[in-house]
Structure formats: structure tokens, C-alpha cells
Amino acid sequence: MRLLLLFCFLNYFSRAQTKYTDTSNAICNCNTAKTLIINNTKLVKHIKAPNCGGDNGIKASQKNKFFAFEKEHNTNWYKLIFKVGGNLCFTIKPFKKDDDYDFMLFKETPNFCDSLKATKAKPVRVNISRDKEDINGYTGLNSASTKEFVKQGVGDAYCKSVPVKNNDVYYLVLDNVYTKGEGFDLELFFETQVNITGQVLDEDNNPIKAEVSLNNSAGAQIAKVFSDSITGKYQFNLALKDNQPFTLNYFKDNSFFYTRSFKSNDSTLLKPLNQILPKLKKGAKYSVGTINFDPDNDTYVMVSLPAIKNLLKLMQKNIALNITIIGHTNGCGQSGYKGGVKALSLSRANKIKNYLIENKIDAKRLSTLGKDCQEMIYPDTGIFWQQEANRRVEIMVKE
């Protein structure tokens, strides 16, 4: 549960040279709330700290007084118009962790702002807890939480996510109880509950116990399990951000690892994801699954980081293991990289070699080779994911 909660806390955006959006007083009131059209993940970045409190009728004297602001101190109002359905989550990310942001979420009803003024509008989610500094002041909605309302005092920082439908309209009001706040980022996104199952086998199709980890697009681990030593089966049941890349990473000390990428709404998750982990053998060449690169350069895509870390761990666990890292390109034609595709493929291999050396793997155990376009997985393709699969490195065991 904690691992999934941490997942919604990740991706804290840089605040260097912040450029604030429009923060006129118009955003302080329900009637002039800032409209946001939500058709996928929505990031509202660099919002200046609110410095006004609207008179919208939100008072602690409401019928359910524990689930309302004491008053509107420094508020921002948003009108959320959904053009897609799903399980709504959001994260409020203060620039200063001791800013205390509370929020209330309402579903629109006829004459909503008038009803609010008359204290008749009932929120669907409220969080007015404090003491969030240990998580950088973050608060919001996520799928891991179970409470719809969190009252005053020390309490949960997050509330339960909300199912929304296409064309639904909601109002979100954020309130910082302290003046002179430093502003915040607001990220709205959807999550899907997924059930990932599979089996890990050796090259003779015997079940084995192996570490299976789930990582997000930034390479951060979300969850980890071990396949059963008798059956080889494993399972994850959790909520993941919609349409975001993730990786499953299979690792066993004396076998070659593998990493596969997917998205939370992929149809492949409907069937078991079985994986063979072959024993390490001299002279064998292995695909690692996902160590891929951006076009025309040697920068690996961030989703490759778990596989790179697995390679490092394999080298650390097997001190007699010597390898050749083989780089590849997508296509044989002109490349914007200095030296052309041959130099680019070698540079990609050296990028991974240097990562291992920087992490204290002896350079004598590592060699590199550039194969340019000689061994493309998908020749003559115009499909993006196939092109990315061609821009890869492979590993050959020398000793």
C-alpha cells in the first residue's frame, strides 16, 4: 500500500526559473473559476500562491462542519470539464513543504455556485488535514486511499479517487491556510486497476524463484514480488496511471535478466506474462528486453533504467562475469550523429559500459562493440515502437 502511495508522489517538477500562470483574483471565486478541459493526464504547472479568499459560502458552520474549510484563506478555484472517463486522481505539489494545502471537490449540480453560496452544495471529497511535511506537503486523491473525507487535525494526506464519466463537470477548490505561500503544481490523472500474472521458468521450462519488480517511466520501483519456487507463478494487483509506460523486471542471480515494457491499458495484461530466464553461458548473446535509446543519440530512454540497474546487479552478484556490450541502430542511412551509424552504435554500448564503471565495475570485465544496422529486429519499419526496439544494446557473455 505504501509503495503505491509513493507512486503518486513521484515526478516532482523543477522550480528553477518559475514562470507563473495568470493568478488574478478571478480564480478566487466559484463563479469565475478557471476552466480546465480534461481529456488525459493534465498538468497545471507553476501556479502562483493564492492571496485571496473568496466569499463562496464555505464555512465551518455547514451541516457537516468537520468536512469544510474553517473559512477560505487563500484559495484557487477550478472548473474541471471531463472529456474522458476514468478513475480520477490528482496531486497538489506545493513548492514549499510547510505550506498547508487543503481541498474540497464538488460535482456540479444545477445553479451550483448559488447552491454553494447558500451552503447547500455537498462535497464528494474533502481533505483538511495537516502535518504533511514529511511528504513535502503533497495531498490529493489516489487509488490506494480508502477515505472520502479527512477532517481537521493530523490525518491522511490523500483521499480516495473518484470515478468520473465523459462530460462530467466538477469544481475543485484549493486553500492554503498560510499567507505568502510559494505556489504549487497540480497534476490530474487517471488510474486503472490491473491484475498482472505470470510464471518464471528456466530454459528447460522448469519453474524457478526469481525477483519480479514493477517500475514506472522514471525508473522508480513501485512494487516487488518473488515468483513461487514451486510453481514459478507471480502476481501484482494494483492501480497504475493510464497510458504511461511501465516495466516488469525479472532477475535471478545466476541467470540472465529480462525487462519488458507495457502500458496499464495494454491488452497483453489480460493473459499471463510468462518469462524464461536462461542460465549464464559463455559465448551466449542475450537480449535484455529494454535498454533503448533516443533517435540519433546515445541517451537511453528513462524506462530503460531498471534494466540497466539489473545489469549492474548481475555484474555485482557474479564477480567472474565478463561481458561484451553490443550497440545497435535503427536504419543504415544518414544519421545526425557525428561519425554516422557505426559510431552511434558504439557510443550507445560505451554509454552502458561507462555507467557500470561509474558504479565500480572493473573496466577489464567490459568490452564494447558497435553493430550499426546489421542486426535490426524490425528492418524497414515506420512504426515508432519498432524503431525504438532497434535502438538497443545486447549483452554477450565472454567469461
Short recap of the structure:
It is built from 5 helices and 22 strands. The chain has about 400 residues and is mainly beta.
Description:
- This protein has helices at 2-7, 112-117, 305-317, 340-358, 384-390; strands spanning 34-38, 42-47, 75-82, 86-94, 101-107, 125-130, 139-142, 149-154, 158-160, 162-164, 169-176, 184-201, 211-215, 221-226, 233-241, 245-251, 258-263, 275-276, 285-292, 323-327, 366-370, 392-397.
- With 399 residues, it is mainly beta.
- Helix 4 (340-358) links the parallel strand 20 and strand 21.
- The strands form 4 sheets. Strands 2, 4, 7, 9, 10, 12, 15 and 18 form an 8-stranded mixed β-sheet that branches. A 6-stranded mixed β-sheet has the order 1-3-11-5-6-8, with no helix packed on it. A 4-stranded antiparallel β-sheet has the order 14-13-16-17.
- The longest helix has 19 residues, at 340-358.
- The chain has 5 helices and 22 strands.
- It is elongated.
- Residues 1-26 have low confidence and may be disordered.
- The chain folds into 2 domains: 2-190, no CATH class; 282-399, OmpA-like domain (60s Ribosomal Protein L30, Chain: A, 2-Layer Sandwich).
